[in-house]
């Protein structure tokens, strides 16, 4: 799968559902196969969904890591010699988007674009991301989606039976054509595909930001993140409560408050540099970040399986 013009905002605010279309195809095929009792078709759809999740989440991590690298480059340029300063600034000012690339190409692109000053950091993170993303690594995300699709498919069958649509083939399948099943299930499948895509990609972008920020060459330059809620009418109160909160990148509180905080969450973290912290009076005499007090009303949505800081639970192979 390739994704063109990829930025966090474009992905999370995509009202057209354009980026989620491949997810829709696999999820809809899985739904139809489960209702139709077609086990080979269900297995094929499940395999495609796993591949799509691995690819899109891998690309999301690359984007998140690239955003952290650009933030660091802008700050390091202040201390660099003239030639290095120019290269760092050009890299820092590159638009936060990836060209039309596959996951493997995105990793290579991230490393090759990064100036020599911080290329070792990019290479270390790229190697780790390459190790992490495979169909096996996203199995927990696939299983979660499949469980939801299965529940909806079972509900579909129950509703059809109540409507008087009987079973054919000795009770193994509904007496309904595949095309009818497709038409009846398309609306739910599309809405669900958008939600899964948005939630998975936001998880991966956040993981990439955190993973790159832990690198020793970057940690001192970009020591904190700020929680940014969208702040519109769709923003949930418990998400909005965390808006503007600044914490060190390694603060354990992120295990509970790193976005996404719920399904369809569009919240993000943004980098806060040491220079910005100093200007805001948020560095104490010992050089430590003066952090925000965690708001009592900030927490993940009830029922959302928040796995903690995404870079940590993806390390463990899922959530």
Question: Could you write a compact summary of the structure shown?
Answer:
The protein is mostly helical.
Written overview of the protein:
With 319 residues, the chain is mainly α. It is built from 13 helices and five strands. It has helices at 8-12, 21-36, 39-76, 82-92, 103-113, 116-132, 139-162, 178-213, 216-219, 237-240, 254-257, 274-279, 310-315, and strands at 167-168, 173-174, 224-228, 246-248, 268-272. The chain starts with 7 loop residues before the first helix and ends with a helix.
The computed structural class is: mainly alpha
> What is the string of SSEs from the N terminus onward?
HHHHHHHEEHHEHEHEHH
Low-pLDDT parts are none
Shape: elongated
Largest sheet: 3 strands, antiparallel
Q: Give the rounded overall mean pLDDT.
A: 86
Work out the strand percent: 5-15%
Helix content: 55-70%
Euclidean distance between termini CA atoms: 23 Å
Main β-sheet, spatial strand arrangement: 4-3-5
Query: How many DSSP-defined strands?
Result: 5
Count of helical segments?
13
What would you report as the Rg, rounded to the nearest angstrom? Answer: 22 Å
Features:
5 strands; 13 helices; 319 residues; three-stranded antiparallel β-sheet; two-stranded antiparallel ribbon; mainly alpha
Topology of helices and strands:
Elements: H1 8-12, H2 21-36, H3 39-76, H4 82-92, H5 103-113, H6 116-132, H7 139-162, E1 167-168, E2 173-174, H8 178-213, H9 216-219, E3 224-228, H10 237-240, E4 246-248, H11 254-257, E5 268-272, H12 274-279, H13 310-315
Antiparallel strand pairs: 1-2, 3-4, 3-5
């Amino acid at each position: 799968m390739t994704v063109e013009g990829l930025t966090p905002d474009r992905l999370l605010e995509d009202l057209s559902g354009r980026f989620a279309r491949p997810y829709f195809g696999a999820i809809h095929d899985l739904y139809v196969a489960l209702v139709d009792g077609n086990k080979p078709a269900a297995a094929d759809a499940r395999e495609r969904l796993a591949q799509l999740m691995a690819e899109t989440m891998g690309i999301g991590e690359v984007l998140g890591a690239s955003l952290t690298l650009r933030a660091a480059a802008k700050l390091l340029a202040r201390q660099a010699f003239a030639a290095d300063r120019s290269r760092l600034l050009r890299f820092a000012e590159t638009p936060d988007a990836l060209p039309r690339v596959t996951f493997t190409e995105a990793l290579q692109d991230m490393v090759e674009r990064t100036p020599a000053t911080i290329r070792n950091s990019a290479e270390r993170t790229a190697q780790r991301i390459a190790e992490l993303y495979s169909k096996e690594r996203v199995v927990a995300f696939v299983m979660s989606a499949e469980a939801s699709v299965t529940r909806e498919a079972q509900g579909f069958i129950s509703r059809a039976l109540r409507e008087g649509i009987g079973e054919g083939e000795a009770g193994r399948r509904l007496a309904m054509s595949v095309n009818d099943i497709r038409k009846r299930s398309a609306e739910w499948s599309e809405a669900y595909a958008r939600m899964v895509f948005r939630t998975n990609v936001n998880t991966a972008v956040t993981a990439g930001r955190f993973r790159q920020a832990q690198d020793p060459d970057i940690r001192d330059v970009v020591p904190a993140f700020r929680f940014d809620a969208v702040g519109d009418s769709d923003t949930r109160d418990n998400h909005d409560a965390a808006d503007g909160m600044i914490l060190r990148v390694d603060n354990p509180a992120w295990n509970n408050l790193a976005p996404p905080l719920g399904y369809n969450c569009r919240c993000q973290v943004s980098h806060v540099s040491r220079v910005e912290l100093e200007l805001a009076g948020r560095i104490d005499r010992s050089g430590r970040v003066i952090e925000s007090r965690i708001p009592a009303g900030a927490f993940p949505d009830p029922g959302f399986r928040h796995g903690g800081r995404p870079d940590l639970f993806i390390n463990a192979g899922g959530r």
